[in-house]
Amino acid sequence: ELKVEQNPLFLSMQEGKNYTIYCNYSTTSDRLYWYRQDPGKSLESLFVLLSNGAVKQEGRLMASLDTKARLSTLHITAAVHDLSATYFCAEGGGSNYKLTFGKGTLLTVNP
Amino acid sequence: DVKVTQSSRYLVKRTGEKVFLECVQDMDHENMFWYRQDPGLGLRLIYFSYDVKMKEKGDIPEGYSVSREKKERFSLILESASTNQTSMYLCASSLTIGRYSNQPQHFGDGTRLSIL
Predict the structure, then answer these.
(1) Looking at residue B98, what DSSP letter applies?
(2) CA B114 from chain center: how many Å?
(3) CA distances (Å), origin A96, targets B8, B31, B45
(4) For chain B: N or C, fewer Cβ within 10 A?
């Protein structure tokens, strides 16, 4: 059974601080996705990581993939309130179509 | 921009009713998906379709069926709604992706379904 585990599930942090969300997965997949979801809204694609060592950055968010460790990280630099949302990682597994999602990390950035 | 449109944002139905949730995408995507999202459980795949009239079961297909008569439209059907099907339902679409594709799934706004 494919498993994707995110850690932590809840994260409360102050503006200006740095933190990392971890995503462990159980298969040999080399495709990992990060999504953001605002309350009451749909999921927005943030990053697609396709190979070992892949690193992508957008603003204060940086995602990386280590396929040997089956680990992806989403690093937040100097958090701001606008980053408050739920972040999901999902791995592509063995199929071309299916994604298996983690349970999500609810991030709250406090002033 | 990719547009995935779900027909209703909120829907209230009664136990035993047959319920139809509709999803339309405008980007000629081959693949379409239905998920349900529940607090603490994340997103779980119900069914997906990789071509017209083609479908495959996801992780939690029991109590659901789907229909894809046209490429742009993917319907989720609750054959006889039950209270444990109260949930947020999300539709998504994507291009056919090869091993090194960077195409994510694109999601609709969701339908919050309540079964009374």
Answers:
(1) -
(2) 16
(3) 29, 10, 14
(4) N
Give me the tens of pLDDT residue by residue for chain A, a chain 111 residues long. Answer: 668 999 999 999 999 999 999 999 987 777 899 999 998 888 999 999 988 888 999 999 999 999 889 999 999 999 999 999 999 999 885 555 678 899 999 999 998
Question: Cβ(A55)–Cβ(A75) under 8 Å?
Answer: no
Interatomic CA distance for residues A59 and A65, integer angstroms:
18
| Neighbour-count burial for A10-31, b at 16+ CB within 10 Å, e otherwise | ebebeeeeebebebbbeeebbb
Partner A contacted by B89 (CB < 8 A): no
Angle at B25 between CA B30 and CA A2, to 5 degrees: 55
